Each structure stands twice: as C-alpha cells, then as structure tokens.
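Q: Could you predict the 3D structure of CubicO group peptidase (Beta-lactamase class C family)?
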Amino acid sequence: MRKYKVLALILWISTGFSGLATAQDFSKLDQFLDSLQMHDKFMGNILLSHEDKVIYERSIGFHDSEAGEKLTEASRFRVGSISKMFTTSLVLKSVEEGKLSLEQPLSDFYPQVKNAEKITISHLLQHRSGIHNFTNDEVYMTYYLNPQTEEFMVEQILAGGSDFEPDSKGEYSNSNFVLLTYILEKVNHHSYADLIKEYITSPLRLKGTYVGKAPEKEETKSYKFGDGKWVFEPLTDMSVPAGAGAIVSTTTDLAKFIEVLYAGKIVSEESLGLMMEMEDGFGRGMFQFPYGVQKGYGHNGGIDGFHSHLSYFPEEKLSVVSLSNGLNFNSNEILLAVLDSYFGKEVKIPNFSSVVLSEEDLDEYVGVYASEQIPLVITFVRDGNVLIAKPSGQPDAPLEAKGEHRFEFAMVGAIFEFAPETGGMTLKQGGASIAFRRK
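A: Sure. Here are the predicted structure tokens for CubicO group peptidase (Beta-lactamase class C family):
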C-alpha cells in the first residue's frame, strides 16, 4: 500500500529474447539467489509453475528472524495489491450474477464522492476514476496501524477529492478498490472475507489464503534492512486496505489461483478478457508484463515490508510467483533473473561491492535538492557513515556508495550521481535521467 512514488517506478524491463523455453537449468538462478541471501538483499519464496506443475521453488531467509525460524514453502505472506485481482474477480462475478453492472455509476452507492455520477464500476476497476489515492497522503501514516471503519475510510477518500476528470486517463489509486470492497459487501450482503471464502478459497481449496486480521503464527513477519540487520516493520491493520491489499497467501495458492482463473473456473472467459483489456497501461485489476515477445498478466504488491508479484504467461502456460517479507534489492531484477533462467538466457550474478566513505566525505552531499523537471524535493542527510535520501512524501532511502560521487538505492534501481563542485545531482532510474540542484 505504501509505495516509493517517483523513486519506485515499477518497470518491467523487456528483453530481446524471442525463443521458446527449452529444458530449464536453474543452477544459475540458485547462484543468483544464494548471492542475494549472502548479502542480506532478499528474504522470501519464489515459485515457477508450467502447465500447472511446479518446476522451481525456493525459500530464502527467515519467517521470524528474532526466533531464527526459516521460511518454508507453506509460509504465508501479506500480498498487498495482488488482492486487487481477487477483488476484481468478485466484482466481475457479481456482474455475471446480475448484482452489478460495469456501467453502474458510483453515485448509486456513494453520491457524496466528487464526480460520482460520472464514475462507473469499470472506471474504478481500471483506475480511471480520478479519485485521489489516500495512501499518498502524509496523514495516512497516522492511522494505518489501527482498525478503521468504513465511515472513517470513506471520509479519508472524500478528503482527497478528485485528481482528474473521470475516464480522461489512468492513474493508480487504492481508493478505487477500497470503495469496491464496500460495494461488494452491499450488493452481496456478506463481508468481503466471506465472499473471498465462498467464491475463491473454498472452491479452490486454498487453505493458506484469506483476508488478514490479527497476524497468525503461520504468517511471516515483515522486515526492512537497516543498521546492518533485518529490522521488524510494523504491520498495517487490514481494515485499512480492505480489498485493495488485505489478502494473505502462499506461493502455491497464488499459482493455483491464477491458473484456475485462466482456466475460466472463477469468472467467465469474457470477464477474464475484460481484466486483461489494457488502457493507459491499466487492465481491470491487472497489469501487463512484457518479456520480449511474451506477455504476462498479473499484479505486483507492496505493504509494510512485504513485496509480491504474481503473473501468468498464457502462451507459455507459465505462472510466476514471488513473495518477499524483506527486500533490500530491486525486485524487478529478481523477476528478470527468474524469467531469464526459465527461457534459457544468461543469469548475471550481481556485484555487491561497495565503496567505504568517511563521515567527512559524505558531508559534501548533504542538503536539499530540487528539480525543474518533476515536482520532487529530495533532502540528503548523513546518519553516521550512511547517506540517507528523504524524498518529499516518501519513506527514507539509505544509499550505498558505489563510486566517486555515485550512490545507489538498489531496491528500486535508482542511481544518484552528485557533482559537488556545481551543487548538482542527477537521478537515474528506468532509463530516465532527472537533474536536481542543491538549494
């Protein structure tokens, strides 16, 4: 739910590979993951399934670091926004049963929302409503750890207003799916948790999947990396994200969910087509993930210290699942290594060598930097011998020195190049190069 905005551009890097998968050798992928584990870059579970059969599975790190309990294949993770695929399935099922219409206006349920009469159920599913994303607001950090009511959450959404005219463009907003959760409950006369159980987890026998409440023993703890160790990250109360991010699941359950979804056993083939229909980069509860000529469909997720990915490549009948409870690396690079391994491409082992700088060396980078290209201010401070980036409205990012005047925040693939003599700084990420200047 909480996201690095500009710094955390979620990019899927396409490759030029156009061949089909041959007999897989996952030894290089194992070496890649061994390196991440050795350098405290990743804790989590990864699964690949081809034609509904698991062909690769790996667990790295700790279920509970303090207790020394390691992750297992059965470990349960908060999956964040992958929940939106479950919620979309329920919405389309309600449409198929005549309880909702994709063209039904939001004003039938929440007339007090700005532009409610222009916003349809379809707009909410495809992030075309214009409703402001409540998790982007600083006040979010004051209440996300505590139980909240529908009334309170609707008040937060109303306070954010509208960011653009409905259906004029697509822009990601968790508010859309929180409202869809409440709408589902109204038209079905059951709680969201009961609907998930009735339509998805019970029929599919997904024993490790449910709407989270108070964490259960089987659920992994949430971590971030700081001060040279994995540190516990507080947990969001699941009443806040609701159908936008409240699902708990396992790699095995998620693979089965998406395989059964594509087999037409959760919603109809027509409804699945609506989920996959892209406009301005958004499907209905789905994104498209290109890999060379191949196209996968699914969703990423991020909540507390958890990072997740679920995708399905229909032509390959390939499911890709990655669930992490601790990440200190670029998740996109991990997914690329997984796919490169499956498709027989070279898997490059990352180089984690760093440059050690003194406190005096770091002081020349400290300051407030602004850009004329984007409305983002980044404040750099020194904490001991670590340089910390503090982007406006986003979590702090501890940087790793990689060379002369060059730092990296590997988790989102961001490079910071300083020019102390001119007071300049360049942020490079995902092919973009953005110039900043110290105030």
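Q: Anything worth pointing out?
A: Residues 174-188 form the longest helix (15 residues).
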